[in-house]
């Protein structure tokens, strides 16, 4: 691969490994295992004395192409593809911890991510402290001699808070702590956590990377040393491997990622500006607007806004439900990062398992709505929103 290739070119060509047939599109290697010419060659493969694949749970040619292409985009040395985004999150965190260790996590997390650090980890003797991730002092104050991992999302789900990744990484490095960043909402096009000092980046590839509602997937990216020392054995023996067919689907998704994200971001910005002028809306949160509470941090660490918009409707749950039900183009779904515009009510879907107190801490009210912009015509989306808001007012 040419080191001078720009991201869009890398997303079409990086990591491609063609069979002797010279296929244009990457091949799907739907095989569970691999054969060896001799017993001696099998032994050498298992010893690591020769390169090659052993078993699809460990890796396959199609998965390797996806991992290499993600590394080229992210600027990472190595990666492992997983069966889902949550498989990536849980593996990235748990593979480097043991009983007696401690996690510090920003409290603004996707519901399942909070469950991993707040409920699952303590079952295995791993402590957890949830903090306001926006405040760097809280990261420092939460550190104990047992703290091994900092975990955060930025921007956060669903209220699009932003965490100062470079600031958190500086604190972590002073204490020998590893920083794991869930970068889904920013996409790898708009934010580079590894360049900001993070040690591990995770994605739900289900979102923008596939971005067309077809399959689940995830990926963990880091240095080769970290993956070899922490993730490799965990990955092999616990089995969160990605299906080669899904890896092939994600490779196809990466080819059009810049085109889709550009249109989605333009649409999200258009909707955010439209909502800011409507009386039915109590507040709008969008990383591309100057009135975002952390616009200064966004300017330092992101090169684009987001495909997501969070807003709060006056009138609470009743107004939110009426608004969503009145939409025509935009569909109700808890997914995001799709070519189709999607909308959800976090308090009753993605964050319903949190306590009311926890939702209030995160700024999730009964009127909070999360919009994921698709690639439709932006004017059609604005008209759809206008009709729905008029229905709420009526």
Overall helicity: 40-55%
**Relative strand content:** 5-15%
Helical stretch tally = 16
Classify the fold: give the CATH topology of the largest domain. Aspartate Aminotransferase, domain 2
Strand order of the largest sheet: 1-7-6-5-4-2-3
CATH superfamily of the largest domain: Type I PLP-dependent aspartate aminotransferase-like (Major domain)
Written as H for each helix and E for each strand, in order along the chain, the element string is HHHEHEHEHEHEHEHEHHHEHEHEEHEH
Number of strands: 12
How is the quaternary structure best described? single chain
What is the straight-line distance between the termini?
58 Å
| Overall CATH architecture of the largest domain | 3-Layer(aba) Sandwich
Q: What is the CATH C-level name of the largest domain?
A: Alpha Beta
Which word captures the global form?
globular
Largest sheet: 7 strands, mixed
Strands, helices and their partners?
Blueprint: H1 7-13, H2 39-47, H3 61-74, E1 78-82, H4 85-94, E2 102-106, H5 111-123, E3 127-131, H6 136-142, E4 147-153, H7 165-175, E5 178-182, H8 187-190, E6 200-204, H9 206-210, E7 218-222, H10 224-238, H11 244-255, H12 257-276, E8 281-285, H13 295-301, E9 308-313, H14 316-326, E10 331-332, E11 342-344, H15 356-362, E12 368-372, H16 378-393
Parallel strand pairs: 2-3, 2-4, 4-5, 5-6, 10-11
Antiparallel strand pairs: 1-7, 6-7, 8-9, 9-12, 11-12
Helix pairs in contact: 1-3, 1-11, 3-11, 4-5, 12-16, 14-16
């Amino acid at each position: 691969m040419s080191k001078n290739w720009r991201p869009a070119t890398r997303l079409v060509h990086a990591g491609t490994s063609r069979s002797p047939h010279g296929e244009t599109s990457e091949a799907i290697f739907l095989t569970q295992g691999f054969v060896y010419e001799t017993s001696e060659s099998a032994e050498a493969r298992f010893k690591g004395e020769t390169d090659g694949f052993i078993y699809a749970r460990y890796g396959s040619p199609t998965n390797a192409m996806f991992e290499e292409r993600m590394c080229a985009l992210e600027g990472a040395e190595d990666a492992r593809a997983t069966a889902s985004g949550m498989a990536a999150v849980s593996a990235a965190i748990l593979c480097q911890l043991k009983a007696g260790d401690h996690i510090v996590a920003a409290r603004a997390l996707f519901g399942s991510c909070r469950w991993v650090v707040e409920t699952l980890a303590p079952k295995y003797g791993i402590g957890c402290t949830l903090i306001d991730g926006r405040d760097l002092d809280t990261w420092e104050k939460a550190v104990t001699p047992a703290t091994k991992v900092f975990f955060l999302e930025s921007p956060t789900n669903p209220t699009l808070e932003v965490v100062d990744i470079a600031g958190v990484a500086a604190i972590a490095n002073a204490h020998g702590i590893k920083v794991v960043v869930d970068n889904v909402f920013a996409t790898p096009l708009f934010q580079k956590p590894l360049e900001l000092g993070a040690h591990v980046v995770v994605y739900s590839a289900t979102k923008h990377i596939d971005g067309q509602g077809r399959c689940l997937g995830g990926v963990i990216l880091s240095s080769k040393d970290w993956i070899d020392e922490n993730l490799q054995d965990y990955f092999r023996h616990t089995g969160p491997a990605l299906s080669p067919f899904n890896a092939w689907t994600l490779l196809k998704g990466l080819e059009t990622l810049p085109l889709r994200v550009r249109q989605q971001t333009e649409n999200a910005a258009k909707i955010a500006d439209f909502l800011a002028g409507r009386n039915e809306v109590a507040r709008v949160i969008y990383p591309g607007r100057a009135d975002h509470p952390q616009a200064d941090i966004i300017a330092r660490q992101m090169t684009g806004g987001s495909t997501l918009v969070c807003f709060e409707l006056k009138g609470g749950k009743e107004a939110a439900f009426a608004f969503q039900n009145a939409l025509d183009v935009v569909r109700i779904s808890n997914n995001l990062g799709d070519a189709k515009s999607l909308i959800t009510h976090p308090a009753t879907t993605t964050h319903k398992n949190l306590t009311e107190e926890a939702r209030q801490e995160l700024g999730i009210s009964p009127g909070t709505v999360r919009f994921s912009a698709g690639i439709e015509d932006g004017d059609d989306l604005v008209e759809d929103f206008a009709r729905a808001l008029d229905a709420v007012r009526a």
